[in-house]
């Protein structure tokens, strides 16, 4: 069951329990006992539905925060505005389970080091966010064509704005599952554990021999990477490098040719 549906069911279960307990007359007067029962019941339902652990905390806090915010009397337009802003940034994260977080310049440097030297390479960033990988990468390798596909409108527009003076960057708004990956020498993914099995299947079906799949932080389960690059950054970032179609025959340099 998708996490968003589980969350909805947990909230509805919490409301049903709160309604039943409220009607039974055992609760003290006032809104807060009712809110507490709803929050506890929703968190309990999330546990029964085997939601990820952080969802229990979200359910515990959700109705108390809603009730508290209602008491503050904030004009409804602000809620709408906040919803629109978050929707434009996170777009389909509730479905894809891939939120927005950004690669740092050390990652771009390491990815640049993985590119073959003897030809102008083509790179695609799957879900390019604000372009925080592609912009430094395009500066480090001016011969490289750096492409990105991003589904969320706000990060995409920001990436277009920030990369407007970098001619070797091409950005598109869309869905990376719908494009062909076979033209790229390096496919970069900084997503989440959820899409990695499908990323691996598509990479195996479409990448050329020698083309590298680099996954920042999220390994492909049960597949041995060709190489793991561990960075000396704050997170100790690990880049998992795979050759889904094997090495390039008779090539000289770059990870794909080892
Ligand atoms: C963790 S962020 C990484 C951003 C960027 N690649 C970086 O390294 O800084 C993942 C991005 O992928 C986007 N995304 C998720 N699924 C997508 C899809 N199917 N097509 C295009 N973009 C997608 C999300 O909107 C999010 O901005």
Explain the overall architecture.
It is a single chain. With 258 residues, the chain is of the alpha/beta class. It has two domains: 3-73, no CATH class; 105-257, Vaccinia Virus protein VP39 (Rossmann fold). It is 45% helix and 13% strand. The protein is built from nine helices and seven strands, in the order H-H-H-H-H-H-E-H-E-H-E-E-H-E-E-E. It has helices at residues 3-24, 31-48, 53-72, 76-90, 93-96, 105-114, 134-140, 153-162, 196-206; strands spanning 122-126, 145-150, 169-173, 186-189, 212-216, 227-230, 238-242. A seven-stranded mixed beta sheet has the order 3-2-1-4-5-7-6. Helix 1 (3-24) packs across helix 2, helix 2 runs antiparallel to helix 3 and helix 6 (105-114) packs across helix 7 (134-140). The model has no long low-confidence stretch (mean pLDDT 94). The site of S-adenosylmethionine (SAM) has 23 residues, from strand 2.
